[in-house]
Amino acid sequence: MTAVPVTVLLTGAAGQLGRALLASCPQGVELIATSRAGGEGLLPLDLADAQACRRVVLEHRPDWVLNAGAYTAVDRAESEPELAKAVNGGAPRALAEALRETGGSLLQVSTDFVFDGRQGSPYLPKQKRRPLGVYGASKAAGEEAVEQVLGAVGQGVILRTSWVMGPVGRNFARTMLRLHRERGAGGPAIGVVADQVGCPTSTLTLATTCWRLIGRWDAMISAAGAGPLPMVLHWSDAGAASWYDVAVAVGELGVELGLLEQAASVNPILTADYPLPAPRPSYSLLECSGTRQLLDLQPKHWRVALRQMLETAPSVGP
User: Fold this and answer.
1) Three-class SS string for 208-232?
2) Which of 71, 123, 135, 283 is the catalytic position?
C-alpha cells in the first residue's frame, strides 16, 4: 500500500463492511480493529460511548480512523433516536476531536439517506443534506460534526455510499437469496418495492475504495498543491436499480451460480403497499464520477458486483 507503515483504527470490524475491510487490508497497514463486543483479535469499542471513542484514539494515536461502524437499523432508529444519534453523530464528533489533537485523519463512511430523494437526478457531494428520518438525520449529524471539527485542518473525509450488500451479515441481497430458496418451488411470490431507485454497492468494491483513498491521500494532497481536496466523496457501484430489480437479479444469479435450484416469483409493489416506520428516499443515486477520477477506480455495474459478492456467499442466512 505504501512504503511508510500506516496505522489504521477500524471501527465496526464485525459488521459486513468491517469484515470486507479486514479481508482486504493491504500490506503496509498496521490495523487496530474494534467492534462493540470485541472478540477474537478485536478491541471492544462501544460507539455510543463518546469518552471511549476519545480514549481509544488518544491511546493508539492512529494515522487514520476508518469509521465503518454505525447504527444501521433504519426502522428501529425511529424508536431509539438517542442511541442512533449517539452512535452516528456523537462517535464521529468524539473521534474527530481526538484526531484533531493527535494529528491523525478520519475517513467517515456515510449514506445516501442524508438526502430526501425528491430531486430525481443523482446527488452531488456538495448538495445540501435533507434527511427524512431519524437514521438519516443521525448520519447527517455525524457528517456535520466531521466538517465542523476537521474541515478547516484537512484531517477528515466523508465517503457516502448506498444500498450496501455483502457476502456476510444482514442485508437485502442475503435476505432475498434466502426467500428465493424458501419460495422457489411454487411458493408464494416475493413482493418487493419497485418505486425506490438507487444503486446497490458491494462491500467488496466499497472496501477497495476505502483502502485506495487512505493509501493515496497524502499523494493526492501533494498533487493538489494549494488547492484543497474535496471533503465529501461519493461511491457506489455503477448503474441504477429498484429494490425489485435487485430481488429479481438475486434470483437469476442465484440459479446461474448454483446457489438456488429455482428462483421464486417476484412481484413489484409500491412503497405505500409496504409501510415501514422510517421514510425512505424515493431516488437516491449518488454522482460518483469525481471520486472515480480522483482515485483512478473503474466502476463495476451493480449486477456484476452483485454476482461476485454472491459467489463468495454460498450459505444463505437471515
Assistant:
1) HHHHHHHHHHHHHHHHHCCCCCCCE
2) 135
